[in-house]
Design goal:
Layout lengths: L26 H8 L3 E7 L2 E8 L6 E5 L21 E5 L15 H14 L10 E5 L3 H11 L5 E5 L6 H13 L16 H6 L12 H9 L2 E5 L5 E5 L25 E6 L7 H10 L6 E4 L6 H4 L1 H14 L4
Parallel strand pairs: 3-4, 3-5, 5-6, 6-9, 9-10
Antiparallel strand pairs: 1-2, 2-4, 7-8
Helix pairs in contact: 2-3
Length: 325
């Protein structure tokens, strides 16, 4: 997704000023990331899927799903806060993180990854059905999974996902029609000569301020892999498939929200430009009656980065009293 022009160059390169050094981090964050998950890969329709797990098998299951271009490590500082009561898992979608790449990506394959990860992580070993949380893009295959397999889930939580009002969808369509379009999926990642140079180019998408740069640093470091430049020299690049969206177009899935076969809840960043207030109201109106809705104050789209403690507290409070059956 191309970010809009901005005047503040720091938004484009928030980590550049550290020149490869790690920003200072608070104690809660340091303790959380020190709680290392078990790491493995599971085969799903020909691709090996990265799976991280915390907590004991037999506790209630909780699966955390990341957004587009991200990876399971986006939850490494979130999951430990739930691991004393839940069997927690986070997976990387195919084509992202340390998961394998596919020749063709489909909604069916993403749904299959959810089902396989939930089973492989042991989230059904407890007496309660597992709960699933999806951020941004992650909520699209999650909602589809809840339509197809929702009777197997205790509930799903949609976090700041771009389910848009009909008016906003039409507005976006008009904007795309008036702007020059670059070919989809035809641009390989740039190879940076050093790890520090690559780290300096990290930014959030959609573009937004980031006050907690110690979090941005963690997810950026875990999003880089060694690579070879065309001249054979060693370098670094991003570890998601640059051709993932070449032939895959996500259908409009908004209408499916009324057909999910399990309880649903909705979380939004108060200042999000991706899920704006009218989208939040519209999306909630499509969900099953009585679905909880929460706003994270002073958070934009990347709520777990913008307000991690508030997000953890909100999710803790939500899961403590929901679902009710």
């Amino acid at each position: 997704m191309d970010a809009p022009p901005v005047k503040d160059p720091a938004l484009w390169t928030p980590l550049a000023r550290f020149e490869g050094r790690r920003p200072d981090a608070p104690d809660w964050f340091t303790r959380a990331v020190a709680c290392r998950p078990q790491e493995r890969k599971i085969p799903v329709q020909g691709a090996d899927i990265e799976l991280l797990t915390w907590g004991e098998v037999g506790r209630p299951g909780l699966l955390l799903l990341h957004g587009n271009g991200a990876h399971a490590g986006w939850y490494r500082f979130i999951a430990p806060f739930f691991a004393d009561r839940y069997r927690v898992a986070a997976m990387s979608w195919s084509g992202m993180g340390a998961s394998g790449w596919r020749k063709d990506y489909t909604l069916d394959s993403f749904v299959a990854e959810i089902v396989a990860a939930t089973e492989a992580a042991g989230l059904y070993a407890g007496t309660a059905k597992p709960l699933l949380v999806g951020h941004s893009f992650g909520s699209f295959p999650l909602a589809e999974a809840a339509v197809r397999h929702g009777e197997r889930f205790g509930g799903i939580v949609i976090v700041d996902s771009p389910f848009l009002t009909p008016e906003r969808r039409e507005e976006r369509r008009r904007e795309r029609g008036t702007q020059p379009q670059r070919p989809r999926g035809l641009h390989p990642h740039r190879i940076y000569p050093t790890f520090e140079a690559a780290l300096a180019r990290f930014r959030l998408a959609p573009l937004q301020p980031c006050n907690n740069l110690y979090i941005a640093d963690l997810i950026a470091r875990e999003g880089l892999i060694p690579a070879k430049a065309e001249d054979g020299s060693a370098g670094w690049t991003w570890r998601f498939d640059p051709y993932l969206w070449r032939d895959f177009h996500m259908p409009d899935l908004t209408g499916m929200l009324g057909r999910i076969k399990c309880p649903g809840a909705l979380i939004r960043g108060e200042n999000s430009q991706l899920m704006q207030a009218p989208d939040f109201d519209y999306t909630h109106s499509l969900m099953p009656p009585g679905s909880p809705r929460l706003e994270i104050p002073d958070a934009e789209h990347h709520v777990m980065i913008d307000q991690p403690i508030a997000f953890i507290s909100a999710l803790n409070g939500l899961l403590a009293g929901w679902p009710t059956h």
